[in-house]
Amino acid sequence: MNDVSNLLDRAVQGDGSANPELFAALHAELHSLARSAMRSERKDHTLQPTALVNEAFLRLVKSPVSWESRAQFFSASARVMRRILIEHARANHAGKRQGDRQKVEFREPMAMVESDPEQLLSIDSALERLAEIDPRAEHVVELRFFVGMSVEETAKILALSEKTVKRDWEFARVWLERELRTLRPE
Fold first, then answer.
1. Within a 10 A sphere around the Cβ of 133, how many other Cβ atoms?
2. What's the pLDDT at 2?
3. In angstroms, rounded to a whole number, what is the distance separating the alpha carbons of residues 129 and 89?
4. What is the per-residue pLDDT across 46-103, written as a single tens digit (0 to 9) for each?
5. Residue 69 and residue 88: Cα distance in Å, rounded?
6. Which domain holds residue 41?
7. Total domain count, the chain
8. Is 110 exposed, middle or buried (CB count within 10 Å of its CB: 0-12, 13-18, 19+)?
């Protein structure tokens, strides 16, 4: 991690020569994260994992944030990838018809749910409200539901106990299911 930390610091300081090395050092892990995030998307999605990695990486190295650990960097990567997917859904959803929504149950990662842009936007809106109530629970959902991380991986990234992650996940799952039901009664 020392080499990666140094490269991250150099990139954040504006040293463009660090970017290719940093990208090469982190590409495989970022691509794995992107594939997990993209599993939740519809089969004909126009954004591919490689494009998601490239866009996320560009945004991350342009941000004025300095990461102290690999975990912080990958947590930020998950958040940026979520934002990119939401922006993509908004752009593709503009002007499309409203209708045929499917129920989302927050039991397993989103990779288990076939999403559509409208559904993704509803989930994102609910997550923004959850962040106002419990930012940590929102982050747990982001990593577990959007990226498909396990309880163990989420606990490691967020520096929490697995028990805390499970408790936050259960709270967020119930809260989000109720919130989404309120938005669109069945």
1. 11
2. 65
3. 19
4. 677 778 888 888 787 777 666 667 777 778 888 888 888 888 877 776 545 444 444 4
5. 29
6. 2-183
7. 1
8. buried
Segment 116-153, tens digit of pLDDT: 667 777 888 888 899 999 999 998 988 888 777 889 98
Q: Does the pTM exceed 0.70?
A: no
Provide the token pair at 72: 């912080």
Task: Kindly state the tokens that stand for 68.
Answer: 């102290």
Long-range Cβ contact pairs of 29-37 (< 8 A, separation 24 or more): 29/74, 30/56, 30/57, 30/77, 33/74, 33/77, 33/78, 33/81, 33/147, 34/81, 36/109, 36/111, 36/147, 36/148, 36/149, 37/78, 37/81, 37/82, 37/85, 37/146, 37/147, 37/148
pLDDT given for residue 94 in this prediction: 59
* Tokens describing residue 136: 């940590």
**H helices of the chain, where?**
2-12, 18-38, 49-62, 70-93, 117-133, 135-141, 151-158, 162-183
CA gap 116, 133 in Å, rounded: 26
